[in-house]
Amino acid sequence: MTDLEGRYHFAIKVVRIAPEGEVVVAGGQLPLAQAMTDRLANVDLALNLPVVFPAFGMYEFQLFANDMYLGRAVLNCRKQEAPNR
To answer: What's the Rg (C-alpha) of the chain?
Structure first.
């Protein structure tokens, strides 16, 4: 990420997108130890979330900064089929 200035507290949620509604599967907090002063600097966030996907389907990794939604990445969790012989 870039264009950061000040102190930030990041959070991530892993959400299952299901027909009956969204279900939070996992989440975590990513506090930064120091304030960001250079808006042109790059910041990399490393995540170590022990996520177990309870069912096949679509999942979102949602990123928040200071409780503001920044964006998402979508993952499609599918059953792997054995090749036909």
So the answer is: 17
